[in-house]
Amino acid sequence: MSPAFDLAIVGAGPAGMAAACTAAGLGLSVAVLDEQPEPGGQIYRGVERLAATRPKQLEWLGPDYAAGLELTRAFRKTRVEYFDGAQVWQVEGASEARLFYKRRGAVGILTAKKFLIAPGAMERPMPVPGWTLPGVMTCGSVQTMLKANGLAPKGRFILAGCGPLLLLLAAQLVRAGIKPAAILETQINRWAALPRLPGFLAAPGYLGKGLGLLRELKTAGIPYHKGVTRLAIKGDSQAREIEYTCGGTTRTEPLDLALLHQGVVPNGNLAWSMRLEHEWDDVQRTFRPVLDAWGRSSNAAVLIAGDAGGIIGAKGAEAMGRIAAFAAAADTGKISSGDANARANNARSVLAQHSGARPFLDALYRPQQQWVAPPDDDTMVCRCEEVRAGEIRRLVTEQQCPGPNQMKSFVRCGMGACQGRLCGLTTVEIIAECRGLPVKDIGYYRIRSPIKPITVGDLATLDVPKREEAVGL
Amino acid sequence: MPDYDAIIIGGGLVGTAVAYGLARRGKKALVLDEGDIAYRASRGNFGLVWVQSKGFGVPEYQRWTRRSSEDWAMFSAELQKETGICSGHERPGGVTICLSEEEFSKRAQRMAQLHVEAGETNFQYEMLDHAGLKKLIPSIGPEVVGASFTPYDGHANPLYTLRALHAALIKHGGTYVPNIKVERIDAAPNSFCITAGGVTYAAPRLVLGAGLGNNPLGKLVGLNVPVRPSRGQIIVTERVQPVLPMPTLMIRQTVEGTLMIGESREDAGFDDTTSPEIMRTLAERAVKTFPFLRNTRIVRTWAALRVMAPDGLPIYEQSSEYPGAFVCTCHSGVTLAAAHALHYAGYVMEGALPAELARFSTQRFDAAHVSTAA
Amino acid sequence: MFQLLPDTTAQTLTVIVNGETVTVPHGFTAAAAMLLCGESATRTTALSGEGRAPYCMMGVCFECLMEINGEPNQQGCLVTVAEGMHINRQQGKREVRE
């Protein structure tokens, strides 16, 4: 049976949408599957609806968000099979790969010659004491609610952590007339970042934007504490205050809502579940799939574009999406590889500009050790299975537990509903620290299908041949 | 001067159970283990402590399994006392559920056979019809025909059991060295030098408890261990309120509340990935058995490789070429964990396997030995 | 803890959050509706029973599990509201039902 599509794309963010437009333009039959009801991904979340019903808020969110309108419009005009509200729960195989999804209550299977995985990024876990309390959320979650729901914090709220998103969210809220009580910025690495400044300066608009955000926050009079070395959120059944140490002094601030953030990392569970080859990026302090310059992964059927392949930002993701689409067109015989090369030139130079800014940003905001391997034994690491840092540490030091998968089987960290998304990086950082080895030598959890929840009934109705001889009495 | 009383290759349920068994007898035990990613049957286990499918035509296997199942409560209590870790062991009896008249009559025949073969050791069982089973487990579906029940069956959490064995081993002065592969074995009768990770360890006893690795390792010490992988696939669901009062052969509820659905049997070589076809078949059978599963969410699926001898029986042997070298391998690392820790370890120290284990000798692979599948 | 920003022309609908009728704009998620209602803990865990609330709002953390139209353990941040939707806290382990 020949595959139903030339290219199936997972994710309708900047990488997925750009890839879809480019591939369809080259004559490929394209399917796009996305979890959300509207295209845009998290970065352009709800942008069409917001422009239609809340145009004033478009100004608050800023031009980088509004830029998503152009791409979503182009995507809407392109002839692709768009599966909105579709959760991809498995992609398996290589030569005859299949994609499994759930949409509107039913499971389906989709075949394609090539698969482009573009599920974007997620916020890096920030395990500090009290981070599981109600009233603690991520900066990204609040930005998502601003975009998707027009919902903003009320009462006394504080942003803590570091990274561009932290400052951007603060400025967006200020523009909406909603002021954070404070920003607590964890230590950043000015000296390590300095040698990488030229690339940042050469990238279009980055410096201006950064300085602009800082100016806005200063003008608004938001208390901005830098160099925070310790954070703890306290409260009985709800976050009531945040304790922070800055310049050797510990202070406490009351709050209703604490918003944490320390950068973003690839949203990697689909790539991990396919056992794609990964490498450790020691500056971004995360694993990422091994890709060639076209986004081809270690599985011949699978390409990866956007932040899922390593953090590059929306514009870089869009360019990478186009580049991967040219590769898919060449690999499926729609264009020659020489043609692909020539056509990809534009996208490559855009990508180069944006990725030029990354080394500086990555080095500046590289989280320091205590923020990725919580020193306090009582800090929750695995939120789902309620496993704390001390338990993981003790199993390594006292029982020589060799790695994250043995850890998972001993204490169940990573076995819960989120399937390790919120504890994977923390667990491997703690093991690496205890064993005195680099994280690249520790590895990562084996991530298992289904990476999105389906029911036993869903699986029972899957349209694949049965294997009675292997099951039963 | 040897460093250890015994070296055990393999840090899974089998290897660690034997090692702990040695350590609790005051012996210095060293466990050599591979790294975080390896073919680890012990991490993919279903977790039954199961008697009623074991040993058709091989009463020795039924007796050995029964013995381990009887010992499990004591074994589990001992581990909990030593380490504070609860293995989750329960022995409420268990059922094998039949979905057709054909399955039911075949099952009845087999149980009758087990009963006869048990002889004076007695084998109690009951064939339950739909109504009878519904009294025991009210949530069965209308398509369930019946089940066989024995009081000997139970289950445990294989992962906590493994963790407890590791902790207990270390508490008793055992040594666990992971992340290495055995590079070399220099063997002489009752004297073994094992080189692994660039270090050489010596002991008068060697136990191969390395699962599928026993096949190549055995050759180095004159043991024929023709084990092959048999792939099993398992589904685990979200936690739900208690719904299954006892384990069934294919579906059980863990102490945490999750439901495990297994398990398939197929020859897939060393491929330990899952396949949608098997998953669908498992899920369909599960939903027929317990319709509530239809709306229950899956958290994870996985495949693992059973360690299978051609006849499905365990392999217990001492090398005749290099006395002091033993092999201990089976596909029921949970069920037999108690027997391995409490008894097999003792045989290793004594330097001789008892007559009751003769049926599991490698001699059965040597000539045209006729055997029945277990 | 949360408020709706002004200046929206979006149409509204009503949902029932923990028994109370609430008006929310079209396109809202069930988790956002809970937060707008000022709910603190939107679930208790199946393990220790401690209270938790939505954390990531993008489908990765599974902290916003709630009971939606009687169906337990739904990710509230991925469910778009519909008229008359019942949204309730998830209390610990779910019960099974056919």
* SS content category of chain C: mainly beta
Most extensive chain interface and residues per partner:
A-B, 47 and 56 residues
What is the count of helical runs of chain A?
A: 19
* Low-confidence segments of chain A: none
Count structural domains of chain C.
1
Instruction: Report the C-alpha radius of gyration of chain A, rounded.
Output: 22 Å
Find the CATH topology of chain C: Ubiquitin-like (UB roll)
Distance between the termini of chain C: 37 Å
Strand count, sense and closure of the main sheet of chain C? 7 strands, mixed
Share of β-strand residues of chain A: 15-25%
Overview of this protein structure:
The complex is a heterotrimer of chains A (473), B (374) and C (98). Chain A is an alpha/beta fold and 473 residues long. Chain A has helices at residues 14-25, 47-53, 55-61, 63-66, 68-77, 139-149, 164-175, 190-193, 197-202, 206-219, 269-273, 313-331, 337-343, 345-364, 369-372, 389-399, 404-411, 424-435, 456-460; strands spanning 5-10, 30-33, 81-83, 86-92, 98-103, 106-117, 121-123, 136-138, 151-153, 157-162, 182-186, 224-234, 241-246, 249-254, 257-262, 264-266, 278-281, 286-289, 302-304, 380-382, 387-388. In chain A, the strands form 5 sheets. In chain A, strands 1, 2, 3, 4, 5, 6 and 19 form a 7-stranded mixed sheet that branches. A 7-stranded mixed sheet of chain A has the order 8-15-10-11-12-13-14. A two-stranded antiparallel sheet of chain A has the order 7-16. Chain A is globular. Chain B is of the alpha+beta class and 374 residues long. Chain B has 3 domains: 6-80 and 158-227 and 311-366, FAD/NAD(P)-binding domain (3-Layer(bba) Sandwich); 94-150, no CATH class; 228-308, D-Amino Acid Oxidase, subunit A, domain 2 (D-Amino Acid Oxidase, Chain A, domain 2, 2-Layer Sandwich), CATH 3.30.9. Chain B contains 9 helices and 18 strands. In chain B, strands 8-2-1-12-18-17 form a 6-stranded mixed sheet, sandwiched between helices. In chain B, strands 14-15-13-16 form a 4-stranded antiparallel sheet, covered by helices on one side. A 3-stranded antiparallel sheet of chain B has the order 4-6-5. By secondary structure, chain C is mainly beta. Chain C is built from 1 helix and 8 strands, in the order βββαβββββ. In chain C, strands 2, 3, 4, 5, 6, 7 and 8 form a 7-stranded mixed sheet that branches. In chain C, strand 2 (12-17) and strand 3 form a beta hairpin. Strand 9 (151-153) of chain A pairs antiparallel with strand 1 of chain C.
